[in-house]
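Quick look at the format.
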Amino acid sequence: MSERLVSSTPAEPARRTLSELESLPLAPPAATGLREVVRRRYLLGMLVRNTIQSRYQGTVLGWLWSYLQPAIRFCMFYFLFQVMIGRGEGTIENFAIHLFAGMVMVHFFTETFNGGTQSLVQNRSLITKLPVPREMFPVARMLVAAWHTIPMIIILLVPCIALGWRPDLVGMAAALLGFSLAAALGLALGLVFSVGNVFMRDVSKIAQTLTQFVTFSVPMMYPFTLVDTRFGGDVANYYLANPMAEAVLLIQRGFWIGTTADPEATAAVHMPDHLFTRGLIMLAVSLVLLVLAQRVFARLEAKVPERL
């Protein structure tokens, strides 16, 4: 049966359920690499759909939870920071949107990173049965993270539009650059940490600990100008070397800036110089890291089945 799976057309295995694939005998080694993952996109899509469906299995509201949870989260932050304690009054206009825009980017990155780290261990039964590149599992978790980020973006758009935000080419380019940066960096880390987690389960705990720092190391709960004011330009430059700080600033440029009374003045005050240049450089560096991560993954993945 494993030989029929290898030689069959793309449409045939796509009709099989993952439970049927898990019952197959051990599969022979398959070609590896991210390019091979793209070539097997029919199986990648099946893996993504199964992961999404399993998350809401047994619930009454199902996928509506992906909208309800971020909506409640946004209302809580709005009430707590903007109504209760007046955070941002006089300094940060529409602080709740400033905060939630950062949360969207941080959520996408942390779910990509943490999900990718655990992907091989969580799919151990499939890894030994399917002749597919094992990079497929971290990639699938990145796509699942993107799927769950879409409702958050929709929730973000509602108050933005109500406050007069309109899409502009520069802002959309900034948001797209930010998501590309977070995706490349999160997938690179997910590849390395996923194979490391196979050999030592503590690696997943390390990844969770690292992602906790992300929330406080980006200009989300506070503006970037606070870093510059409190610690000076030298420290601010080191702060901006954090790729996720750059990604958060880019999504804030795409959405939050457009909700303020004077977007140009707000961008001049709260956005650092050379935002796009820095973002493009960090994206290029992240793509190089992704290539290196894939090579590290390829060197170690042969030992993955026996370790699982």
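Next, a different chain entirely:
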Amino acid sequence: MRPYTFASVRSVGEALGQARDGSAYLAGGTTLVDLMKLEVVTPAHVVDITAVPLRGIRADATGLFIGATERMADVAGHDLVAGPYPMLAEALRQSASPQIRNMATIGGNLLQRTRCGYFRDPATACNKRSPGSGCPAVGGHNRSHAILGTSDACVATHPSDMAVALIALDARLSLRGTDGERTLRLADFYRLPGSTPHLENELRPGELITGVTVPALSWARTSVYLKVRDRQSYEFALCSAAVAVNVTNGVIGEARVAAGGVGAKPWRLPGVERALKGRPMRLQTFEAAVAHAADGARPLSHNAFKPALLCRTIIRALVHLAG
């Protein structure tokens, strides 16, 4: 790990005052510290924001608000989350390990970096880490990599489970920078790699995520997060699905569907949602609806199974909701 300076702050204003070129914010640290040890990221200045009052979980008629430094485990078990938004609670519970969930924060989870092995190895090329150096995953080991939203410059998969559920729920981020506050849909926050995979999101220099708002959605109680992975715990998704349906008299009125483990960012599937709407809640409907779920996919040498796995994962989630 390279030398760095360190500051601990107690307010958003102090945090923003410490931000500078080459600095990083530290909350739970479960991603940042790992990457600093590997020298994948090398901030010259680290700002500890654990004492900044960015906590709180509350709900009203407009929706659910979660502070950015709330711990993942606390959010997953909260009554305002587990009952009204089971897909979000399940996505959190299926993330990482109990030890990490007790430390990691909501804001940090949304900003975690890809788990691509090439990105995490400074001895190899990686366009995310060193723009223009190449993407060895394209022709290398790529079983866990993305098939949707990729480019010739990067095929890394977005790692967050929670972000998939939040994308399905159309969540918004509250952001605070030196030029004031703003809100942004999470769906608009993440960037596709294109020719600039090192630019992963729309966060401005020094800006902080201060909270997440999930719009009120009464029928989100009928939702599920299904994660397919190589082992049951402490493993990233090969494919996942966050699905919610509003069913009346056996007919789907509305649906929300998003996928993880397959996209360069959490992947909303509006085509599947439209195909479900107005159709009976049964297997034939599900099979027809997922027919185009993997449209535009670019499978690689080791992950050609993912388009089929994506369709089967969504169907399985819908079957679960159908009972």
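Residues 306-322 form the longest helix (17 residues).

See the schema section for token definitions.
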